[in-house]
Amino acid sequence: MHSHTYARRLGRRCRPLGPHALSPVAALGGGAAPRGRNGRARGRPPTGGAPHRRTPRHPRTPTSATPAPTHPRAPRDQGVAAIEFAGFLPILLLVALAAIQLGIAGYASLQANSAARAGARIESQEAYRGQCTAAGEAAMSGWLVSRGGTVTCSDGDIVTATATVPVPSLIPGFTFGPIEKSVAMPSDDVP
User: Fold this and answer.
1) Residue 186 is inside which H or E element, if any?
2) In terms of C-beta distances under 8 Å and separation of at least 24 residues, what long-range contacts does 18-24 make, across chains too?
């Protein structure tokens, strides 16, 4: 049974679309339209008539919406970006050096705290008295000790260790004072 006779039994009007019939695309010279499972051209309504056109979900914007530049850049405007960058570069370098300098100062502060704590811990134990400076300097980074980092201790019922660490300067013309940290701990021999 042909598909068009089956459609007539259901009360639909249709025209047969055989292998010799052209699809709407082929009739306009666009080649044969792709065929579906039932042999009909895809996109064509089952009752015949005009081909079904889908409306796009997102309408395309015309390519002529973007205006073309009316005139090329003037030769004097071509180097403006390079001059602006050259003027901004020293400020950018100064901010970068200040951020690195802040990191170095924070690191020196942590090293001073570690050295003072290590020196006070060693000096507070009776078996290791007198080794405060060596223990504090061993807890500090070598490059800070070579720049003048020192640890001093005071004896008594409460031992106090003071670490002094210089802050190296990266920014020319600026000098920073040393960082001092003190730590106090009770001595072992106190009852």
Assistant:
1) strand 179-186
2) 24/50, 24/51
Name the nearest CA neighbour of 151 among 106, 184, 113, 115: 115
Rounded to 5°, the CA angle 83-93-143 comes to 160
- pLDDT tens per residue across span 37-87: 666 655 555 555 555 566 656 555 555 556 666 666 666 666 788 888 888
Mean pLDDT over residues 151-180, rounded? 89
* Contact in structure between 181 and 116 (CB atoms under 8 Å): yes
The answer to whether 175 and 111 have CB atoms below 8 angstroms apart is no
The C-alpha atoms of residue 105 and residue 137 are separated, in whole angstroms, by 18
- Evaluate whether 35 touches 41 at the Cβ level (below 8 Å): yes
What is the layout of strands, in order, in the sheet containing 158-165?
150-154, 158-165, 179-186
Statement: the pTM of the whole predicted model exceeds 0.85: no
Helices (H), 10-79: 24-27
